[in-house]
């Protein structure tokens, strides 16, 4: 079974792409792998779905990422999807979220041995090794609390832009812990707090702390030690990371919580990097078959 | 999908979804005096039913489209799902087209079901097909020949005429032909699985449980022609897996779709194994009943409900993995299926001796949530692709 793309390298350089289809945004990454196995990120982009035709958003995001990377579509040796990637019609392969976040995490923070992936709909903690192998994992249940969607709802109730949530949370002086982090009851909780005159910053910090309580339970359950990288859509929320650091220190868990400017691309990045790996494996096999 | 394939798939899907067996009613009404005989998984000698001028009809439970109201009263909660939905089908008059029912010896549950059938429907023909577990022709062969003789006489009595040797030979020819095209289908899928998704192959296969064999052979041939013409089907980097444990209670179609979406090309399976039971052709001349008896001893598929000598269990699975260039095995068995789940540790041991990766999960014919299975199968597929050579 020879791959039709077995020799798809340009001057010893291999181009691969990763497309992470999330529930609210598409993350696209283009990576170049050199002959000496050096991996370099050429393009990263996030496109919000905003009730648009998903197939169309994916195609546009991919085309623009390739343009940004200055790579022609037919030069891409392996386009890999992750997340809800079934709608990526042009994919050569699909990798599961845990696999890709683990790979992306080790690429971004090589010392990371645990990943906390907080997406729009769920949070997932994974213990990984230095080769990105997933050694154990725990996920939040189907309940929306503790997810990005929950935080987005709260921000909307408070009239705060999602991008401002982190910085506002960091300004809190006396955070108010919410009595329940049930996504359904959150609106009532928030209204109560607003009517009691609690500041927006304190409300947001309180919500962050409530969410973090759940995440630390997940990390404890997988036996996370030392370096943890936050990935997924909420990785960009500095307030959440700060709350994690505070709570982890308070609980004396011995964790170093990392974020990275490219954390939200961990899934797409991992898909592109695994795509590069798989392309080389398949090319080697095809070569072996040919020989 | 091209219109002609869409039409074919629509037809087999309709047959799969029809829990009132309208196609069987239609077949019977075409000619007065026709009879239909139902059978449970896994194997019954359908050639004999066919030679009697009757339609063998596979009864495979109610799947995920039947609400169980009365069936649960007949079985404890720790019994699998297929007998309760089969009882439900019967008690809701969905099996009225059947003039008789054959219950092969799969497990105790199906044996008990045959007893229940005799009590519930005393006016109908019911036979427990006691398949031999001794493969010595002088012992198991003699026994099985006698069983076949009895079945031949019984069916002759129901049909109002004796089954002639010539008729039986002609039926053997028809079923040989059908099994040959099914073997071709399995080979084609193994070679280029992207053209033959298992969720579709299964429906094509399943049509063979309700249609006359001649018609089913034509459908399979047509599918073999049409599927490779689909331009929208292309190779992808997915794992090649063998699926095991689905020989009796059938998985919901959504489960097969989920496994494929999770990145698994299914290159071999034991779905509807009875249709493909014989590994080769049954001799078409000579004593046809003796040929049927010997074929069972010498050409039977190997599966959980068939005796295999000590230490041999799993050899067929390893062989399937190697023959189909599979990269792993998914054990996917119905909850509470004694044969499948008791055999599993022996199969696992055989795979581990060869270093073949495997994973396992359970289903019920009416399972409706596949998120966990998808995650597990997807991660298994990833682990095969990424760690086998990392």
Can you give the mean pLDDT of chain A? 86
Distance between the termini of chain A: 13 Å
Low-pLDDT runs of 5+ residues of chain B are none
Total count of strands of chain A = 10
Q: Helical stretch count of chain A?
A: 8
Rg of chain B (CA only): 20 Å
Q: Ranges of chain A with pLDDT <50 over ≥5 residues?
A: 1-7
- Please name the CATH architecture of the domain at 21-165 in chain B: 3-Layer(aba) Sandwich
CATH topology of the largest domain in chain A: Nucleotidyltransferase, domain 5
Radius of gyration of chain A: 20 Å
What does this entry look like structurally?
- The complex is a heterodimer of chains A (291) and B (390).
- With 291 residues, chain A is α/β, with parallel strands linked by helices.
- Chain A has two domains: 109 residues, 2-Layer Sandwich (Nucleotidyltransferase, domain 5), CATH 3.30.420; 150 residues, ATPase, nucleotide binding domain (Nucleotidyltransferase, domain 5, 2-Layer Sandwich).
- In chain A, 40% of the residues lie in helices and 22% in strands.
- Helices cover 48% and strands 11% of the residues of chain B.
- In chain B, α10 links the parallel β5 and β6.
- Chain B is globular, with a radius of gyration of 20 Å.
- Chains A and B meet through β5 and α8 of A and α14 of B.
Question: Secondary-structure map with pairings?
Answer:
The complex is a heterodimer of chains A (291) and B (390).
Chain A: E1 14-21, E2 25-33, E3 39-48, H1 54-69, E4 76-83, E5 93-94, H2 97-108, E6 114-118, E7 123-128, E8 134-139, H3 148-158, H4 165-170, H5 186-195, H6 200-221, E9 226-231, H7 238-250, E10 255-258, H8 266-290
Parallel strand pairs in A: 1-4, 4-5, 6-9, 9-10
Antiparallel strand pairs in A: 1-2, 2-3, 6-7, 7-8
Chain B: H1 3-17, H2 22-29, E1 36-39, H3 46-51, E2 55-58, H4 82-91, E3 100-104, H5 108-120, E4 125-129, H6 137-159, H7 165-191, H8 198-206, H9 213-226, E5 239-244, H10 253-261, E6 264-269, H11 288-299, H12 315-323, E7 328-334, H13 338-354, E8 358-363, H14 371-387
Parallel strand pairs in B: 1-2, 1-3, 3-4, 5-6, 5-7, 7-8
């Amino acid at each position: 079974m020879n791959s039709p793309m077995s020799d798809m390298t340009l001057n010893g350089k291999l181009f691969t792409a990763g497309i992470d289809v999330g529930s609210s945004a598409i993350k696209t990454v283009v990576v170049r792998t050199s002959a000496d196995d050096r991996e370099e990120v050429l393009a990263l982009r996030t496109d919000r779905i905003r009730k648009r035709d998903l197939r169309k958003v994916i195609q546009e995001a991919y085309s623009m990422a390739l343009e940004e990377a200055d790579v022609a579509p037919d030069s891409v040796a392996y386009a890999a999807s992750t997340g809800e990637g079934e709608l990526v019609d042009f994919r050569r392969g699909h990798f599961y979220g845990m696999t890709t976040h683990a790979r992306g995490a080790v690429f971004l923070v090589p010392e990371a041995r645990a990943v906390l992936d907080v997406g729009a709909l769920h949070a997932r903690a994974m213990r990984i090794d230095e080769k990105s192998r997933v050694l154990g994992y725990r996920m939040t249940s189907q309940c929306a609390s503790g997810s990005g969607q929950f935080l987005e709802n709260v921000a909307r109730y408070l009239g705060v832009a999602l991008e401002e949530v982190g910085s506002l949370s960091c300004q809190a002086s006396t955070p108010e812990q919410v009595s329940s982090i049930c996504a359904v009851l959150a609106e009532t909780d928030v209204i109560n707090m607003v009517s009691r005159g609690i500041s927006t910053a304190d409300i947001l910090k309180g919500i962050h702390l409530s969410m973090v309580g759940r995440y630390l339970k997940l990390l404890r359950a997988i036996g996370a030690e030392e370096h943890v990288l936050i990935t997924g859509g909420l990785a960009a929320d500095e307030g959440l990371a700060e709350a994690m650091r505070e709570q982890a220190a308070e609980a004396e868990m011995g964790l170093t919580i990392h974020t990275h400017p490219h954390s939200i691309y961990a899934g797409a990045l991992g898909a592109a990097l695994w795509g590069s790996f798989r392309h080389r494996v398949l090319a080697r096999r095809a070569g072996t078959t040919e020989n | 999908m091209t219109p002609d394939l869409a039409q074919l798939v629509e037809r087999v899907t309709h047959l799969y979804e029809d829990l009132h067996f309208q196609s069987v009613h239609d077949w019977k009404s075409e000619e007065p005096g026709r009879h239909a005989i139902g059978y449970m998984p896994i194997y019954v000698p359908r050639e004999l039913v066919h030679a009697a001028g009757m339609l063998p009809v596979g009864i495979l439970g109610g799947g995920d489209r039947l609400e169980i109201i009365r069936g649960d009263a007949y079985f404890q909660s720790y019994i699998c799902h297929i007998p309760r939905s089969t009882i439900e089908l019967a008690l809701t008059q969905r099996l009225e087209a059947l003039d008789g029912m054959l219950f092969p010896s799969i497990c105790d549950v199906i044996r008990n079901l045959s007893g229940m059938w005799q009590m519930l429907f005393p006016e109908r023909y019911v036979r427990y097909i006691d398949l031999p577990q001794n493969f010595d022709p002088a012992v198991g062969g003699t026994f099985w020949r006698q069983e076949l003789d009895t079945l031949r006489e019984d069916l002759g009595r129901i049909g109002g005429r004796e089954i002639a040797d010539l008729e039986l030979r002609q039926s053997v020819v028809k079923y040989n032909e059908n099994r040959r095209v099914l073997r071709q289908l399995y080979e084609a899928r193994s070679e280029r699985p992207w053209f033959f998704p298992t969720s579709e192959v299964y429906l094509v296969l399943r049509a063979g449980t309700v249609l006359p064999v001649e018609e089913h052979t034509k459908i399979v041939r047509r599918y073999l022609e049409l599927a490779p013409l689909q331009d929208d089907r292309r190779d992808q980097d997915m794992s090649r897996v063998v699926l095991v444990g689905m020989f009796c209670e059938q998985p919901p179609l959504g489960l097969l779709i989920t496994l494929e979406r999770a990145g698994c090309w299914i290159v071999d399976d034991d779905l509807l194994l009875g249709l493909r039971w014989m590994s080769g052709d049954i001799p078409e001349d000579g004593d046809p009943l003796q040929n049927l008896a010997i074929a069972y001893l010498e050409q039977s598929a190997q599966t959980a409900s068939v005796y295999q000598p000590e230490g041999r269990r799993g050899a067929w699975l390893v062989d399937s993995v190697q023959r189909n260039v599979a990269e792993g095995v998914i054990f996917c068995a119905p909850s509470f299926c004694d044969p499948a789940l008791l055999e599993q540790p022996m199969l696992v041991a055989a795979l581990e001796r060869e270093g073949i990766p495997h994973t396992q999960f359970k289903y019920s014919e009416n399972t409706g949530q596949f998120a966990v299975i998808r995650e597990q199968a997807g991660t298994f597929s990833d682990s095969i692709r990424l760690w086998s050579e990392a």
